[in-house]
Design brief:
This protein is an alpha/beta fold. It has two domains: about 375 residues, Rossmann fold (3-Layer(aba) Sandwich); about 100 residues, ANL, C-terminal domain (GMP Synthetase, Chain A, domain 3). The chain is built from 13 helices and 26 strands. The strands form six sheets. The chain has a nine-stranded mixed β-sheet.
């Protein structure tokens, strides 16, 4: 039987503000230390990159909070952010939290249609948006462009951070829902404190670290590993917002003397494929961090052989961030993301029901004890979906796993149909709903297909409405339709035309059988 005592780490203080926790201590102890570097061009000198010290960052975040309050944004009110990877994005996110408001970080990749759903569903009163992005806000929503965002930091002296409770709302993030529509995951102020088991249970983080993260700000992986945790530990965060080119990452690691690099396994694979890493000075790099999708044993070995560095993997979810990981000082077991982080209470529960953890070696549903401070407050206005993920004192994320006698976890896939695309969770229902609106589609089912070890793509299996028509079995219009209505990472890479969909006796589509129906 596994430990069921609940979270055993240090509990968060009763009064707690996430932004204060991340910035106040370092701003007082090391005010002139560089906290954030934003690189727009990998070719410019290190001195030319945008830099923020802890003192500057602390003041700018509090001034942003004051500006949001002047606009009438009350504690608990939502602010949606629709921008690229800029310092303004980070200042707005932490500034809203500093004011006791609730930021909603969204992806710049979302279509206008997808972004509009998030805006309406969240009930956001303010929308901070880059000029190059568009949306038609509903009545009562104020849009802030870059010029207005800059003026938020002007005016009166910066106030103190809001006196929030640890269980007060801090931010709202959207992820795939079981109904096909994205659902909001509401996190508490304490969520930053709930990340403390990662510090040595994954990173081995130190105040002198320079952490380069390859993700976008809207992702909890980037907001956490790329900003929240470096700042809470007095380290330096480096983020890149220039053109997406896989060859820039070794350059950035070398130029900014990165000690930790964080990305999804797919990017590590591309870095190894398109760069000769022996041509770069990576001596400052202690190790890499990876999450978002499974790290294959082959990729781990290739990275080790090429760089002489270790890769430490983590498993998590939008609802609780990462809680299983490998870490410095612990042997890495290829094929396993690691063990439960110190203080976490994690188990495998029987699929068919029950709250008693399974013994080592038996496969069940991965569960996190609901006492974990990193666990979400709940789904935004989705009590029906909340009821599906709790079983007594346990939160169930839908992953099938087993633990061995040493505590290492092995992943066996999802118990539901949610797919993993570039580290993002994508509901097949959302993609199916989009494609089903195309006039050439009679029926459609979407699943993830494995193309090689550790690499999967989203594929749509389409029953054409009229296969005898000239364009009745043409994939191009369907792919164009998907890209017009869905973010790029949600779009299928392949359209496969079939005569009928595999179904159960009750008529339900058997998505797991689709790969066998491929022509």
């Amino acid at each position: 039987m596994r430990d069921t005592r609940g979270y055993t780490g240090e509990p968060p203080p009763t009064r707690f503000n996430m932004a204060r926790y991340c910035l106040r201590a370092a701003a007082r102890a090391t005010p002139d230390k560089v906290a954030l570097i934003v690189v727009s061009d990998a070719g410019v000198s290190v001195e030319a990159a945008e830099r923020w010290t802890y003192a500057q960052l602390d003041e700018a975040v509090r001034r942003t909070a004051a500006g949001l309050r002047r606009l009438g944004l009350e504690p608990g009110a939502r602010l949606m952010i629709r921008m690229g990877n800029t310092s303004d994005y980070a200042l707005l996110f932490f500034g809203a939290i500093a004011a006791g408001c609730v930021p909603l970080p969204s992806s710049a990749q979302l279509t206008e249609e997808e972004a509009a759903f998030l805006l309406v569903d969240s009930g956001a009163r303010l929308l901070a948006m880059a000029d190059e992005l568009t949306i038609r806000p509903p009545p009562g929503v104020r849009v802030l462009g870059p010029a207005e965002i800059a003026t938020l930091r002007e005016g009166s002296a910066p106030p103190d951070y809001a006196d929030t409770a640890a269980a007060d709302p801090a931010f709202l993030i959207y992820t795939s829902g079981t109904t096909g529509q994205p659902k909001g995951v509401l996190h508490a102020q304490r969520s930053a404190w709930g990340r403390r088991p990662m510090y040595q249970g994954w990173y081995g983080i130190r105040p002198d670290d320079v952490i380069l993260h390859a993700g976008a700000f809207n992702w909890t992986y980037t907001l956490g590993v790329g900003l929240t945790d470096p700042w809470a530990n007095g380290a330096t965060a480096v983020l890149y917002n220039g053109p997406r080119d896989v060859t820039v990452w070794p350059t950035l690691m070398e130029k900014y003397r990165a000690t930790l690099f964080a990305a999804v396994p797919g990017l590590y694979r591309q870095i190894l494929k398109y760069n000769d890493l022996r041509a770069f000075d990576l001596s400052s790099l202690r190790h890499g961090l990876t999450a978002g999708e499974a790290l294959s044993a082959a990729l781990l070995e290739q990275w080790r052989t090429t760089t002489g560095k270790e890769l430490y993997e983590a498993l998590g979810m939008s609802e609780c961030s990462t809680y299983i990981s490998s870490a410095p000082g612990e042997p890495v077991k290829p094929g396993s993301p690691g063990k439960a982080q110190p203080g976490r209470c994690v188990a495998a529960l029987p699929v068919e029901g029950g709250e008693e953890p399974l013994p080592p070696g038996e496969t069940g549903l991965l569960a996190v004890h609901r006492g974990d401070p990193g666990l979400m407050l709940g789904y935004w206005n989705r009590p029906d979906e909340e009821a599906l993920v709790y079983r007594g004192d346990w939160f169930l994320g839908g992953d099938l796993v087993h633990f061995d006698a040493d505590g290492y976890m092995t992943y066996h896939g999802r118990n539901d149909d949610v797919m993993n695309a570039m580290g993002y969770r994508v509901s097949p229902l959302e993609v199916e709903h989009c494609l089903s609106r195309h006039p050439a589609v009679a029926e459609v089912a979407v699943t993830e297909l494995s193309v090689r070890e550790g690499v999967g793509v989203i594929a749509a299996f389409v029953v054409p409405r009229d296969p005898d028509e000239p364009d009745g079995m043409d994939a191009a219009p369907l792919l164009a339709h998907a890209h017009a209505h869905l973010a790029g990472y949600k779009c299928p890479r392949e359209i496969i035309f079939i005569d009928s969909l595999p179904r159960t006796a009750n008529g339900k589509v058997r998505r797991r059988d689709l790969a066998r129906w491929r022509r």
